[in-house]
Design brief:
Distance between the termini: 96 Å
Oligomer: single chain
Number of strands: 31
Largest sheet: 14 strands, parallel
CATH class of the largest domain: Mainly Beta
CATH architecture of the largest domain: 3 Solenoid
Number of helices: 6
Helix content: 10-25%
Shape: elongated
CATH superfamily of the largest domain: Hexapeptide repeat proteins
Structural class: alpha/beta
């Protein structure tokens, strides 16, 4: 067989092998090694193939556990299952592999001993054992996920992110978290998130597909869904859900709010209990809220609708048409009060309940 360059051999169920490890292995080939083996130090090496090294530190062979001598079984350096091999040397070595071993199998790792016997230099790249976790069961998947999360947390901490309880924070691999962000306990930052410098993500918040500018405050107990786009200094408080919504700088939605398919102007204040009614069962519609607008508590904004800049919406209003800038809009029904009616109402209910109980007993 012919060919040139470097062949990389990997297991399909080792997703955590890092780019840095592969680059290191390839660099060793470029520096003159014929083969580079990926290996790890194991506290309990039972069951793993052992990497046998010569006095100069190069690899002389890899021996499977059941074929190892008692002395070789004491070796803690284990084969990670990946290797980089110069071409066309790989094909020449494969032609010489036999199945003369305890299992009667053809071991790819036998090419190490063959190459060393021919005088080729075999290097070893030693990395953390976590890189070689195999995902061939739900247990393996859970171990790999735990290792990946720890890697992502460490990277975030190293880049200047503060996590008060790192073991409770879960991060997507593509999440971008800028320096001086503070993440409180029990937070999920999912795929597609970008958290701006100096922002605070409070406890029990869940973010996915959300972009935050600098110095935002989110949570606790906030849910940011895909399409959330917040400018600098935005405040999104407890039990607020946001989806496909742009909030310009300084906008606030501090409590108990749903904002979907909306654009919120800078410095707008969204009161507790506000809902953008964006879906009629068939389609989604947008709500536009201008800069500096004030939306009173427990308001329903029925989309499509526009609230002008600096407008004020009275608490408890249902807004079904556009409101001009600098206007005050509210909806009210008249208050009905019947004095002393509460006592009569209670007496009526108590009497009816007693009659029902007596009738049941007679039956």
């Amino acid at each position: 067989a012919t060919g040139s360059g470097t062949a990389l051999v990997m297991f399909a169920d080792n997703p955590l092998v890092s780019a840095a490890t592969l680059q290191d292995m390839a660099a060793r080939i470029e520096a003159g090694a014929a083969i580079t083996v990926g290996a790890f130090e194991a506290l309990d090496p039972a069951g793993y193939g052992r990497v046998v090294r010569a006095n100069d530190g190069t690899v002389s062979r890899i021996v499977e556990h059941r074929d190892a001598t008692p002395d070789e079984l004491t070796i803690s350096l284990c084969n990670g299952g990946i290797m980089a091999v110069r071409l066309p040397l790989l094909f020449d070595l494969l032609d010489r592999v036999t199945n003369d071993n305890a299992k009667g199998e053809f071991y790819l790792t036998d090419i190490i001993g063959l190459a060393a016997g021919d005088g080729h230099r075999i290097d070893c790249a030693v990395v953390e054992m976590d890189e070689f976790i195999g995902v061939d069961s739900r247990h393996g998947q859970a171990r790999a996920e735990a290792a990946l999360q720890q890697r992502l947390r460490n990277a975030a901490l190293d880049s200047g992110v503060t996590m008060q309880a790192p073991e409770t924070v879960f991060l997507a691999a593509d999440a971008v978290i800028e320096r001086d962000v503070i993440i409180e306990p029990n937070v999920v930052i999912g795929s597609g998130c970008h958290i701006g410098e100096g922002s605070i993500i409070r406890a029990f918040s869940h973010l996915e597909g959300a972009r935050l500018g600098a110095c935002c405050i989110v949570g606790p107990y906030a849910r940011l869904r895909p399409g959330t786009d917040a400018g600098n200094g935005v405040k999104i408080g407890n039990f607020v859900e946001i989806k496909n919504t742009r909030l310009d700088a300084g906008a606030k939605a501090n409590h108990l709010t749903y904002l979907g398919d909306a654009t919120i102007g800078s410095a707008a204040n969204i009161g507790a209990g506000t809902i953008t009614c964006n879906y009629d069962g068939f389609g989604k519609y947008r709500t536009l809220i201008g800069e500096g607008a004030f939306i009173g508590s427990n308001s329903a904004l029925v989309a499509p609708v526009s609230i002008g800049a600096r407008a004020i919406i009275g608490a408890g209003s249902t807004i079904t048409s556009d409101v001009a800038e600098d206007s005050i809009a509210f909806t009210r029904t008249s208050l009905t009060e019947k004095e002393q009616a509460a006592a009569a109402f209670r007496e009526k209910r108590i009497t009816a309940k007693a009659a029902k109980t007596n009738a049941a007993k007679k039956e």
